[in-house]
Amino acid sequence: MNIDLSRLTTEGRNPASADIDMLSTEEMLRVINTEDQKVALAVEKTIPAITQAVDAIVSAFRRGGRLIYSGAGTSGRLGILDASECPPTYGTPREQVVGLIAGGHRAILQAVENAEDNRAQGVDDLKALNFNENDVLVGIAASGRTPYVIAALEYANSLGATTVALTCNEGSEMAQVAKIAIVPVVGPEVVTGSSRMKAGTAQKLVLNMLTTGAMIRSGKVYGNLMVDVEATNQKLVQRQINIVMQATDCDKQTAAQALEACKGHCKTAIVMVLGQLSATQAAQLLQDNGGFIRQALNNAGMK
């Protein structure tokens, strides 16, 4: 296949860094930093599309569906990173948010030759997960032309699932295939074609928004506290105690006792303290209100 990379914004030469190899270390770093400052503004322009995607993901979660990322190289690794952070941060099942990368597990640590060009594998990886119409697929590729990802998007479309393209080039094939296109155009990289830089940063920012937004809308955040955090180490045990203290304005002993009574479930501990309820009563109240703390307290006549 003959590919004209010169037509891609992410492959263009950046005049701001044309002489970067002749600059001092500090000057070089200031060029990089100045370019990086453009990324958040590019992402800002895509918020309407990100909103559509977040709402689709929340809807999928409510019907038992999953969020699946598909990418190659840096893009695939970013998807895996985002997916892997959801269980410890939000207490989600490990199968609810999943990252797929062209070339499989080995490609997380090193490049796998020709993996991104393997269309069949893009489909097979989804089939291995029993991907279905209840799921959401987010295809990630800075170029917007990765065959592995395009094939996955096409397969997901054929099942009637929601598909999202996250790319940094306008008018890409991926953006045309997907039902929702998120396209932060960050411009040419400081080092020509090194899309792990600005494009990768833009992708990371968008992925942060997709999962954080979906988790907030799913009741896993109270105020700005991560109330479904899993305590898998001593730092997180202390974080749970701090969260309960911050959410209820109680003392450390009260927070620790509540967490012990409900076997370390932050949400239940918070409702216990605020509602002066037993662990069983608080757990039932949360279950009756879909896991939303505010809704549970309001429906029980508590603030």
Classify the beta-strand content into a percent band: 5-15%
- N-to-C SSE series? HHEHEHHEHEHEHEEHHHHH
Shape: globular
What share of residues is helical? 40-55%
Explained architecture:
There is one protein chain. It is globular, with a radius of gyration of 22 Å. The model has no long low-confidence stretch (mean pLDDT 93). A 5-stranded parallel sheet has the order 2-1-3-4-5, with helices on both faces. A two-stranded antiparallel ribbon has the order 6-7. The chain is α/β, with parallel strands linked by helices. It is built from 13 helices and 7 strands.
Provide a quick synopsis of the model:
This protein is an alpha/beta fold and 303 residues long. It has helices spanning 25-44, 47-62, 73-90, 106-109, 119-128, 147-158, 173-177, 198-217, 234-248, 252-261, 266-275, 279-288, 293-299, and strands at 67-71, 97-101, 136-140, 162-166, 180-182, 221-222, 225-226. It has 13 helices and seven strands.
List its traits:
13 helices, globular, 7 strands, alpha/beta, two-stranded antiparallel sheet, 303 residues
SSE map:
Layout: H1 25-44, H2 47-62, E1 67-71, H3 73-90, E2 97-101, H4 106-109, H5 119-128, E3 136-140, H6 147-158, E4 162-166, H7 173-177, E5 180-182, H8 198-217, E6 221-222, E7 225-226, H9 234-248, H10 252-261, H11 266-275, H12 279-288, H13 293-299
Parallel strand pairs: 1-2, 1-3, 3-4, 4-5
Antiparallel strand pairs: 6-7
Helix pairs in contact: 1-8, 2-8, 3-8, 5-6, 9-10, 9-11, 10-11, 11-12
